[in-house]
Amino acid sequence: TSSTPTLMRLITTGQIDEFSGLGVGSAVGLAVDSSTGTACTTTTIDQNVEFYDLAAQTGFLVHLPGASSELQSGQDVELDPINHLFLVQQYSSTGNVNDPQPHIYVYDEAGNLVETVTGLERIPISPVRIAINPSQRIGFVSNELGTALQSFTY
Fold first, then answer.
1. Which pairing describes strands 103-108 and 85-90: parallel, antiparallel, or unpaired?
2. pLDDT, tens digit, for every residue of 83-132?
């Protein structure tokens, strides 16, 4: 059964305010740029990336390039706070578990695809955390066995 995720934001008073989120399934990835009030999420079932204006409590969806199956849904989301970019990890860009060809998509806060990082080795199917150094625009992600790091630039 799928459900619509609920987003929460902490208001300066310390109160929590809720509003209905977009996407289908449970939230998998979430990053918030607190300097702009923009949030980016991914969910388990659809192949979209969700962008939210937290102050206005509004959002929109951006479909991952070429995605058509749950295996191609977005996973981890990381924020580059210097360049105001969101990096979205995808286990499989092909939808084929035997040849997943993982990607990392780089989006600006308006939901525009800035870059696609390709050429990564297989990564674990569960969300793999992306580590980044925003000042150098470099990142790291684990290989499938968790025994080595793969580096990339964006």
1. antiparallel
2. 999 999 999 999 998 999 999 999 999 999 999 999 998 887 776 789 99
